[in-house]
Write a structure and sequence with these properties.
244 residues, alpha+beta, Beta-Lactamase, 9 helices, 11% strand
Length: 244
């Protein structure tokens, strides 16, 4: 019985499959058939020329798309790094507030609390100075012995420009509240929902540089710190001897 494979028609696909499976055969065929070699070279040359020619109506956007993709990847990387930096800064700020809160809780009386604010807060927050100041019109007798600063209400209002908080370069009124010169400062009123005289007190933070406190600075953490100081002050005043 005759083999069907020997009699069936050989197709182009069969030839291509044979040459792909037997690459050495290509060399032998081209070496023994010069005309075929010439045709092969001509076809290869035409293909190369065609690849160099491009219809002027067709715009190749590949380079532009690749450039944009690189830019987008760079922006994503920068955004990611920025978010990590902000997260690290926020974590550091919260850690500082936590340490300050622990210091306030460790104080047992008003002088001890004022000592924490005056001596420990500048170290915790890297400040030039820190003071707790109260309006002298509502101050208790001998309150200065506790470490609280006393100043007229009009002077405090002028320093804070009649606001609940102030960030920036100290004005003339604010300079009188400082124990030493500061290049910038933050003044935050203690919460007005707390009882008198706590609501008539302010927390003053002196910055080491002009950029330590500026109008565009976020205020959430400092407002929280002032609230913690206010609650602690109210608790310590309750324990204070009214005759002092």
């Amino acid at each position: 019985m005759a083999d069907n494979n020997s009699t069936r028609n050989i197709t182009v696909t069969d030839v291509a499959t044979f040459l792909a499976d037997n690459p050495d055969a290509i060399t032998d065929i081209l070496a023994t058939h010069p005309k075929l070699l010439a045709l092969y070279r001509a076809a290869a040359s035409d293909q190369a020329e065609d690849s160099k020619k491009m219809d002027p109506k067709i715009v190749d956007l590949s380079p532009a798309l690749a450039f944009k993709a690189r830019q987008d990847a760079r922006k994503i990387k920068q955004t990611h790094e920025s978010l990590l930096h902000v997260a690290a800064e926020n974590m550091l700020s919260w850690t500082k507030v936590h340490h300050a809160t622990l210091g306030l809780l460790a104080s047992t009386d008003l002088p001890g609390m004022c000592q924490v604010i005056t001596n420990e807060f500048p170290l915790i927050f890297d400040l030039n100075q820190c003071r707790l100041i109260i309006e002298e019109e509502v101050a208790m007798q001998n309150i200065t012995e506790t470490g609280l600063g006393l100043h007229p209400a009009t002077q405090i209002d002028a320093a804070i420009k009649s606001r609940s908080l102030y960030f920036g370069v100290p004005n003339d009124a604010a300079k009188k509240l400082l124990v030493r010169p500061a290049q910038s400062l933050a003044i935050i009123r203690l919460p007005d929902r707390l009882p008198d005289p706590v609501s008539q007190a302010v927390l003053l933070l002196g910055g080491k540089t002009p950029n330590s406190f500026h109008p565009d600075l976020g205020s959430d953490l400092l407002v929280l710190l002032a609230e913690i100081v206010g609650v602690t002050l109210a608790a310590r005043l309750e324990l204070q001897d009214p005759m002092q």
